[in-house]
Amino acid sequence: MDTIISVPFLDDDNVRSLIYSKAEEFRSIGRSSKETLFKELVFCILAANTSASMSLRMQEAIGDGFLYMSRDELRNALKTNKYRFYNVRSDFIVRSRSIIDELPEIVKSSDHEGSRDYLVENVYGVGYKEASHFLRNVGIFDFAILDKHIMKWMSQYYPVKKNSSKKNYLYNEEIFRGLSASLGVEPGILDLFIWYSETGTVIK
């Protein structure tokens, strides 16, 4: 790709320190217990169509309850804490507990594409964006999260398609990977730089 690409803060030492510190935090999560991994997966399920800040607030409010609350208890907890999709997401989370024991091996696998496909196929409420989010948040930086901030940035350089299907998502992902390679930055790390440039913060 010969397009001149601009990523604010990519060469800013202070921002680089912030980004790579966050990346190490993600790697640490990836070495954690299966329960911690599941709560990170829940974070990604809850962030879909809402925001990372909202999902983080739910994590702080409910914590280990995601591991054991009944569907009704979890639904009420989400509703009490003003989470919009309390019905469907409480159902997704309870039904997805069956994958808890598998998560450490999924994270350790060297087949990152296979891990993502497995999550999409076996976890309720998880598509390619959410699976990519989870893997990035446990220290696998092969994937960016193609949310509205990333798509807005990408559209400055190449025509992108609406993320309305697996085919379109993977098409857009290939564009992002090309842009990432041209900058010499892993996709999941570049994602963090763009997020920072678009929002002025890095959550997860």
Summary, kept brief:
By secondary structure, the protein is mostly helical.
Describe the fold and architecture.
- By secondary structure, this protein is mostly helical.
- Helix content is 65%, strand content 0%.
- The chain is built from twelve helices and no strands.
- The radius of gyration is 17 Å and the shape is globular.
- The relative contact order is 0.15.
CATH architecture title of the largest domain: Orthogonal Bundle
* Mean pLDDT score: 93
Coarse morphology: globular
- Sketch the topology as an H/E string, one letter per element: HHHHHHHHHHHH
The tally of beta strands, per DSSP, is 0
The count of helical stretches stands at: 12
- The CATH superfamily of the largest domain turns out to be Hypothetical protein, domain 2
Task: Kindly estimate the percentage of residues that lie in beta strands according to DSSP.
Answer: under 5%
How many domains? The number is 2
Rg, Cα atoms, Å: 17 Å
Structural class given helices, strands, pairing? mainly alpha
Biggest sheet character: none
The level-1 CATH class of the largest domain: Mainly Alpha
Measured as a percent range, the helix fraction is: 55-70%
First-residue to last-residue Cα separation: 29 Å
CATH topology of the largest domain: Endonuclease III, domain 1
Spans where pLDDT lies below 50 across 5 or more residues: none
Q: What are the salient characteristics of this protein?
A:
204 residues; mainly alpha; Endonuclease Iii, domain 2; Endonuclease III, domain 1; 65% helix
SSE blueprint and pairings:
Blueprint: H1 13-30, H2 34-47, H3 52-62, H4 65-68, H5 71-80, H6 86-95, H7 103-108, H8 112-122, H9 128-137, H10 148-154, H11 166-183, H12 187-199
Helix pairs in contact: 1-12, 2-3, 2-9, 5-6, 8-9
